[in-house]
Each structure stands twice: as structure tokens, then as C-alpha cells.
Amino acid sequence: MKKAIEHILLGREKQITKEETVLQPLPHKDFRFANPFIVLHHLLPQYIQPGSKHRINPHPHRGFAPVTFVLQGEGYHKDTAGHDETVKAGDVQWMFAGSGLLHSEGPTQHLLDNGGTNEFIQLWINAPKAHKLDAPSYQAAGKDQLPKVLEQEGVQFRLASGAYDGKTGPIKSFTPIISMIGEIEKGKRVQFTATPGYWTLLYVTHGRVDVNMETITEHNLVVFEKENDEIIVCAEEDAQLLFLSAEPIDEPVAAKDNFVMNTAEEIEQAMNDYRNGKFGTLSY
What we know:
Layout: E1 5-10, E2 12-15, E3 21-26, E4 37-48, E5 56-61, E6 64-72, E7 74-79, E8 84-88, E9 92-96, E10 101-107, H1 109-114, E11 116-126, E12 137-141, E13 148-152, E14 155-161, E15 163-164, E16 167-168, E17 177-184, E18 189-193, E19 199-206, E20 208-211, E21 214-217, E22 220-224, E23 230-235, E24 239-246, E25 254-256, E26 259-261, H2 264-275
Antiparallel strand pairs: 1-22, 2-3, 3-4, 4-11, 5-10, 6-9, 6-11, 7-8, 7-10, 9-12, 13-14, 14-17, 15-16, 17-24, 18-23, 19-22, 19-24, 20-21, 20-23, 25-26
């Protein structure tokens, strides 16, 4: 049976640094979390002028995984756990902050020197309490490493994590999470199947689609009921979509600044640990 739409959340501008503004459909004033999905940020296409010095400087995280889908351009990541990576258009980066680290992110030096356009989606994916203080880790997968699913004329999706359509994405997570991104040509139709009881979200990155008989325009996030399993999408324009579905983490969420924990006391401890230098130091 078709899944009913519970919320349609329009991404609103949120300034995350002095230089950078993103669209944020999650959390939203009308709906806070679909735990493990805590935050969704969309950096709209941003032209980097040659010779720029654009970067989000070192900052701390604990208790969750910042996950980046690179839509255009290329980004450079560095952290105090020793990871030093470049991801390009179509790639996926999954950094688990765990017990705590500092990281910085931004365009690659090549893009800064030569100019170009960057666009990405970043998710904050929660970790269950039992794993929040595990050692930090890092995963990345290139576009050509993502299995193609839902393949049909005018439709193609790439599976980053979880099992779908008889295939398994290369990115691993603590709890079952299906994440995929793809394109649908105008006039084409595709059916998604979601596991009943899971949170299921659909973000329209670009274009306009009909979702279970309701028109959804770009930069809107659809949150579905947990019951039932069928989602029918018809493209009214060429469209790009991010599909997310996950087993709920039924635990309290305390999220503040750059930390996602279970209690306010754990947030305060994370902030104290950061102030006391326990996350290390990072100069770039």
C-alpha cells in the first residue's frame, strides 16, 4: 500500500559560517528529527572564484556521522583522526565522529586555484548510544563504486548504503540505513519500496515531481508515515532525488552546536572536553 505523506518541509536558509549559507529542511520548525536522520543541509551551486581561500575551519564533532553527497565540484576533508581525503562529484563521504575529533572541510586546492562550482548535501546521521563513544572512522566511495539500482529508461539511482534491489551499498552503518541518490527524466515514473516501520524521507534536490499524487517542488523534504511500503514518483520536470530510509533509533536525542548525544549532560561533557583540548588540534 502507498505510504501517506506526513510532512513536506521546505529548506530554509541557514548561515553556518560567515561566508556560507545552506538550505536546511531538517530540523524544521514543524518537524525536528527522524532519528537517525538529524540534519539535512544542501549547499546550492556555489561558484568558487579562482584564487579564493574558502574553507570551513577546524571544528569539533561527537556522537554521530556527518555524511556528504558531492553533487558538483570537489571537496577536501582533514581530521584529527588522521584522515586526509578528497571527494569529487558523485562521491559519498561518511565520517563517523565517535568519541570526538576536529575536522575541516572545503573546496580542494585545485578548485580554489582554478575556480569551479561546488554543490553538496550533508546529512548528520545519528549513532546509537552503544556506539557514540567508539573510535572515529572514515569511509568514502566513488561514484563508480555505488551500485546502480532502479535502472530503467530515464531513471538511474546509485546506492550508497544499505541493501536495495538485490544490491548492497559500499558504506556501512551501525543501524540499517538505505541511502541513494539519482535522476528521473521528465515524464518517467519510478516506484520505491520502503520497509514498514522505518523512517523514510525523500529530498527533491532539483526539479519537480509528483509523489503519491502530490506535487513536490525542489528543495522540499518529504517525510512519510512509517506504515506501508509503496512510494510512486513521477517526474514533472527532470529531477534529482535523495532517498533515505532507516530503522528508527528509539533513544533520546540531545543535539547542540556540533554534538549529537542522548542527554544535556553528555552535551556539556562534550563541550568541556573540546575546550580542554581532548579532541586534539588541527591547523588546517
